[in-house]
């Protein structure tokens, strides 16, 4: 299903929930517990509303649960409000660690608030307010999509209906640099979802790909890759030469490794969730 259709369905359901809560004297702002994790939510935001309904990226959550090893180092690249970050912190256990990367001021502030609500899990998380790219000399984009409003909203993306949010506090850094400074072990798993900036992230991760060779759980959206000046072919070029193969996130069925064949499986405006691992 195209993201625009998912957002349309979420907006219709949000209106019903909003009216029901309003009748009870409740606002869109609430704190909930899901899978033992506390979140502070604004229900007019798409990601927050999905967490509230316990429907946020459920197939991805199941894949992460299957693939995360206790005691390991896991990266959440494109952490947003921390929906997966905190669950990953639970999965790695007290001897593991999660590095959470989020460049927008809006989402990073919400991530920090959700970490503060879960102190036992927050101690396992190292948050980075940075834009991962080829090097620290790269300019950080002034705004990046990290909000999916369910009410009102102007200047939204034509296909996925996201809103760009400012990155005033973020700095540019390569992933290899961040790992060399802070990681004391190999990376076991990477959740990568950065709305078209995947190639920029991977250009700065050559050492990790060559030496650590972690499993990736990621979203493929060719149309947003193209908007950022990259392509599905370029994205695959970071994986296939290193011995990676792609698998469907839910079924783990092996997928094509040729860009043209893979692109044929993803309609314009749609995305596909995949697992990339050493074959």
Description:
This protein has a single domain (56-278), classed as 3-Layer(aba) Sandwich (Rossmann fold). Helix content is 37%, strand content 23%. The protein has helices spanning 3-23, 46-52, 58-67, 83-92, 105-116, 119-122, 175-182, 198-203, 206-212, 222-227, 232-237, 259-263; strands at residues 29-34, 37-42, 73-77, 97-101, 125-128, 130-132, 143-147, 163-166, 171-173, 187-192, 215-220, 244-248, 272-278. The protein has a 7-stranded mixed sheet with strand order 5-4-3-10-11-13-12, with helices on one face. It is globular. It starts with a helix and ends with a strand.
Question: Top keywords for this entry?
Answer:
279 residues, alpha/beta, single chain, seven-stranded mixed beta sheet, two-stranded antiparallel ribbon, Rossmann fold, globular
């Amino acid at each position: 299903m195209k993201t625009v259709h998912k957002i349309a369905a979420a907006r219709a359901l949000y209106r019903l929930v909003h009216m029901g809560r309003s009748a009870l004297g409740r606002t869109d702002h609430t704190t909930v517990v899901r899978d033992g994790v506390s979140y502070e939510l604004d229900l007019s935001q798409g990601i927050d509303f999905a967490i509230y309904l316990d429907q946020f990226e459920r197939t991805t959550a199941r894949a992460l649960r299957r693939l995360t090893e206790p005691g390991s180092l896991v990266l959440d690249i494109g952490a947003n409000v921390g929906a997966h970050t905190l669950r990953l912190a639970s999965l790695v256990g007290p001897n593991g660690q999660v590095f959470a990367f989020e460049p927008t001021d809006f989402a990073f502030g919400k991530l920090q608030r959700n970490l503060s609500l879960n102190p036992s899990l927050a101690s396992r998380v190292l948050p980075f307010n940075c834009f991962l790219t080829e090097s620290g000399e790269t300019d950080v984009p002034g705004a990046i999509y990290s909000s999916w409003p369910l009410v009102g909203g102007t200047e939204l993306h034509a296909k996925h209906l996201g809103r760009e949010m400012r990155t005033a506090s973020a700095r540019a850094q390569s992933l290899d640099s961040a790992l060399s400074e802070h990681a004391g072990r190999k990376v076991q798993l990477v959740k990568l979802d950065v709305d078209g900036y995947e190639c920029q992230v991977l250009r700065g991760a050559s050492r990790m790909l060559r030496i650590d060779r972690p499993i990736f759980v990621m979203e493929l959206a060719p149309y947003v890759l193209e908007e950022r000046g990259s392509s599905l072919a370029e994205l695959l070029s970071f994986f296939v030469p290193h011995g990676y193969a792609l698998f469907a996130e839910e079924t783990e069925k092996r997928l094509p490794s040729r860009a043209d064949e893979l692109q044929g499986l993803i309609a314009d405006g749609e995305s596909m969730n995949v697992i990339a691992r050493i074959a």
